[in-house]
UniProtKB/TrEMBL annotation, chain A:
The keyword Transcription applies. One of its GO terms (molecular function) is RNA polymerase II general transcription initiation factor activity. Gene3D superfamilies: Histone, subunit A (1.10.20.10), TAF6, C-terminal HEAT repeat domain (1.25.40.770). This is Transcription initiation factor TFIID subunit 6. Residues 133-144 have a biased composition (Basic and acidic residues). The gene is TAF6. It comes from the Eukaryota. Belongs to the TAF6 family. Pfam families: TAF, TAF6_C. InterPro entries: Histone-fold, TAF6, TAF6_C, TAF6_C_sf, TAF_TATA-bd_Histone-like_dom.
From TrEMBL, chain B:
GO terms for cellular component: transcription factor TFIID complex. The gene is TAF5. Belongs to the WD repeat TAF5 family. Residues 78-89, 360-371 have a biased composition (Basic and acidic residues). PROSITE patterns: LISH, WD_REPEATS_1, WD_REPEATS_2, WD_REPEATS_REGION. CDD domains: TAF5_NTD2, WD40. Residues 1-53, 78-105, 337-382 are annotated as: Disordered. The keyword Kinase does not apply. This is Transcription initiation factor TFIID subunit 5. Keywords: Nucleus, Repeat, Transcription, Transcription regulation, WD repeat. PANTHER family: TRANSCRIPTION INITIATION FACTOR TFIID, TRANSCRIPTION INITIATION FACTOR TFIID SUBUNIT 5. Signal peptide: none annotated. Residues 162-290 form the TFIID subunit TAF5 NTD2 domain.
Amino acid sequence: MAEERRQKQCSVVLPTESMKAMAESVGVGQLQEDSCVALSEEVSYRIKEIAQDALKFMHHGKRRKLTTSDIDNALKLKNVEPLYGFQSQEFIPFRFASGGGRELHFYEEKEVDLSDIINTPLPRVPLDVSLKASKEQQKTESTEPLKVVKPGQEEKGTIQGKGQSTTTPDGKGKEKGLIRLKPRSTHELSVEQQLYYKEITEACVGSCEAKRAEALQSIATDPGLYQMLPRFSTFISEGVRVNVVQNNLALLIYLMRMVKALMDNPTLYLEKYLHELIPAVVTCIVSKQLCLRPDVDNHWALRDFAARLMAQSCKTFSTTTNNIQSRVTKTLTKSLFDDKTQWTTRYGCIAGLAELGADVIKTLILPRLTVEGARIKAVMEGPVVSNIDKIGAEHVQTLLLKHCASVIAKIRPQPDNVEQYRAEYGYLGPMLCSHVVKARTQATLQAQQVNRTTLTITQPRPTLSVSQSGLTGSGGPRTPSIIKVPSSLTLMSPRPGTPSQPSPPATKYIVMGTSAGAASTQQVITLSSSQSASPVTSTVPSATSTLQPLVKLESGGTPGLTASRPLQKYIVVSLPSSASSSLEPKSSVLPTSISSASLDGGIKLERSESPGVSTQSPH
Amino acid sequence: MYIKYIKSEPPSDGFGNSNANDGRLLSSSPGAGTGGTATGNNKPAPGPPEEQQTLLAVLQFLKKSKLAESAEILRREAGLPEDALDPKGTDASGSGPGLAAGSGQVDGVDASSLLSRVTVSSSAAAQAPKKDSSLAACFYSLSASPDQPDVSVVLSAYSQQGDPSLYDAYYSGLKRFIESVLDCHRAELSQLFYPLFVHMYLELVYNNNESVAKAFFEKFSGDQECYYEQDLRILSSLTKKEHMKGNETLLDFRTSKFVLRISRDSYQLLKRHLQERQNNQIWNIIQEHLYIDIFDGMPRSKSQIDAMSGSLAGEARREANKAKVFYGLLKEPEIELPLDDEDEEAENEEGKPKKKKPKKDSMGSKSKKQDPNAPLQTRIPLPELKDSDKLDKIMYMKESTKRIRLGSDNLPSICFYTFLNAYQGLTAVDVTDDSSLIAGGFADSTVRVWSVTPKKLRKVKSAADLNLIDKESDDVLERIMDEKTASELKILYGHSGPVYGISFSPDRNYLLSSSEDGTIRLWSLQTFTCLVGYKGHNYPVWDTQFSPYGYYFVSGGHDRVARLWATDHYQPLRIFAGHLADITCTRFHPNSNYVATGSSDRTIRLWDVLNGNCVRIFTGHKGPIHALAFSPNGKFLASGATDGRVLLWDIGHGLMVGELKGHTDTIYSLRFSRDGEILASGSMDNTVRLWDAMKAFDDLETDDFTAATGHIHLQDNSQELLLGTYMTKSTPVLHLHFTRRNLLLAAGAYNP
């Protein structure tokens, strides 16, 4: 390559035509061909010489581009009068023209009327040279880019630095900085980003489910959120802190859904913010009290949901250095083994552990079954203590049965003898036995369709509701909207028939009705945009095992039912064809009718920077 | 071992015979034109008897070669009596009694044996001719004084000496030979390619064989090492004899001998080959234009050679780096340490006992220790410390107690000063030692000074106003300042071309700037006016720097000389001449006794301020050098060039000791941390890189480098030494500076 280039350099000379043209321009008519050749060689050499000198000036000018002033200076070196008139041009706009077999480069000079120039208002004076300092805290990562400029200043690329800094794992805790000059979160957001952030956070904790869905969708998919990530993270952790104290279940759920959405966003790297997010999630799993009325509110679902988030983050982010999984396991086990632990926390611990997988269940929960069984028995069959304890014990029992049965079914050889079970697992033995048997039959019958027991929410109470019950509804059966989002999409329950709602295309839902655990039919409900239309229901064969229910709604059938078994379970699978799907199966009652004022107030208390912004759609 | 009294080029030892024959053979062609011969004479007027002897030997040789006419001319020119030749001539025509002794020559029958007298046995061939080119020139323009070789004289050395069509064959013959020798010799002998190629090409051009020259260039230019590409490009544009006049690169090549370092074995091999082939064309070039520095020992490897070569004129001669350099630091003047007092005042308030005594003692004993490598305190006169200097020293000591200890696991924080809206016009930056002021030189001829502390820049009041103030008051220094002029930025107007170098004086009262207009200006930072314009360089001045002790400053520019100035003299005190191309950067040694200059000829030279001698020549860079930095202890020098490499040099031994690869573009700034643990480099590639200087130099001491042969084996450990790379978005790093507390400041202009 270099060789070729060199050869080219060696041979490049100006064409003799140029010489002729130049000679004509100064009035020399007939120029001999020989003279032309001689001249062109000489001129080419001199031009090269000057170019080489000009390069020197470029180097000393600390530039990469050769400018006309460099050429001028090089000419001055040779005691040649510089070419005037080319200064202050960033580049020389040569135009190219060809025709008649001739090619020509020329410098386009327009004739300008002087009066035009005089009469036009003066252009703005260019900015003067100024000096900006920006410090970069020394980090261990050598890939950390040096941020040259303050945000909002001339270097737009600095935001990129932030993005890159989050890509380097294990930055936390390894900083060996000398002086902390600039905390990480002080990078300012642009006005647009501030607006967006405000909208998103308000929608996420606001009363409008449709907006929330949109907001969550945006969090889960928007690729440009990394600058706001620290703020989101703080928002969530602070929000959980405040709302746990205030027992604001709905808000906690919304915040967990935000965590979920953040985790779903493939462009975000949460590693650096786990120190804020994980405590928040764990709080939602094991907190003693998460709602105002523990006897009626379904905080269990929140615990389940948070436990699943926990499991997911363990799976995604646990490394040998941060040991998230082992640390979480340790924490949960510790409180599980504590006798004084309340039922709520106990439930959370078990749920949290159970979500971590069969191995964890096998090693940590199965050995505890006897102990827990005895404890449950004491509550169930002993003297009536508080109703709350009883409910708690029931939930723990259900949870244990649900999680353990499948594991036992795998590790324990047949046949399942009730007495053996009783001997081995104590009080829970017989129930376990029946669950295991059920699990086995299911496994054999429906090898394909795995009845993911871990996905069901037992819903023994008919009055389950997320709402804070400020609403004195019609008294009819309210649709509980504990929404589980195991995979990627969120579901919202918008106000039906709202005209402002964009009409989504028809959406398919597969509703799997189960009765007492027995899988029966699956229905495909096609909902058109008009909610008033009755759902078209068709029964389809069960889907494959990979079927991931996006949303599961359970409707408490009869209000008066006190039985410990739910009557019917619906697993609603949404196959949305648009980003925002709307659904309200079988019920047109607004599920979450929470007084928005109180909620917003609760959030705004800690977020002073979002005062009274109109809740407009972020889109 | 070296012969001091070589006066003419000896066709030396074993090769002498064949060369003599060549002389006879070749004499036909030039003889026709000019009546001269291939070999030459020295000074027209013979001085000391040795010279006369030599002349006689030459005369005899001429006579023997039946060139009576030439001999007669020479004789007349030399002013020798007509009969001078005869008795001696008969003497020498014998077997050269006694004269050939030790030269290892078998057939010392002819005059060459006589000449070999002046060589001392072994390293004879290494003693390349010093006046050879001018000698040859004598035959063409005998009127010209060889002491002042002008262009035509220099060029005339390229006389027609052979058939141009054979050059190709000569060169490829040598190439075949070198490619066929043992691997260990091949690398060394390959060094010959480039200088031979250039000289042969120039000879062809000089003799108007344009097309042959072009063909020759195209055929063999690809074989040359890639780091010569720049020079080859210049060479390629040169195709006519007329071009050779006034071409600086060419003159560099001619006026200086290309220096090669070759082991004795390899050299013998080459010599034998050329002898066998009667390849006198190449041999002539080697004799006339090359300086072959022969060493005893193992031939060097390719990588060793590559590390040291690349300069315009080959490697440095070994003896060029032999002089003793006092690289130690000067003793710090003993200052009463009010530092302690002040601390103690604070402490005393808390009722703590005085501990002044022990502290002072420790300081005292430290400063009494005299570095054996340090120059005498009075080796060059240094300015006396003023009160304000002492105060500053105290501040410095205070700050240094708070200095952060840097290391590979404790890197400095970096503060970047970005020049906005500079429109590609920022050409130079400097920061004061206490990091309070920053100055920028711009292509629009201005110098701008910023205060980066809350303290604004103020001018001294006008003379009329100064008369009004109370000169006895305590705060007189405060009162003389004009509060109305306080601003963060002051612009200094005066230059008429881009400002390429600026430097603050250590006491922060002055600022120097050097410009394309050929002047260096001294500015007062009290009045913000120009005090002096130093004229001397007639061409652009690329760099200037104050001595660490003030008063002196050095400048270097396009005129290839560096000048040492004192602020109160309008003419330079010293002129350091020797570089073959522009001087691109200048740096003072920390002890102020030496000056380092980097040049476009890809060498670094170290000059003694006391006597103006060049005491070190460092070769190894493959591009113009744009950054230099002395280590704080004065032992080492770091240099950065357009090739993107940082090279480390041991000043005492005069050796390259390290190579730091990583940058992808020109390095414009280098700086050692205050304690010398970290080397920071800033480059056009928009990065700041930190290197583990401690490790680079520590590893070295365990190395058994062979100072005798003048080369060492470099290990390629750049990656281990690289501690960090910090990217800017689009801001070339033009300047680096460690504050007294070891915070790294970087500066550059944002380049949209």
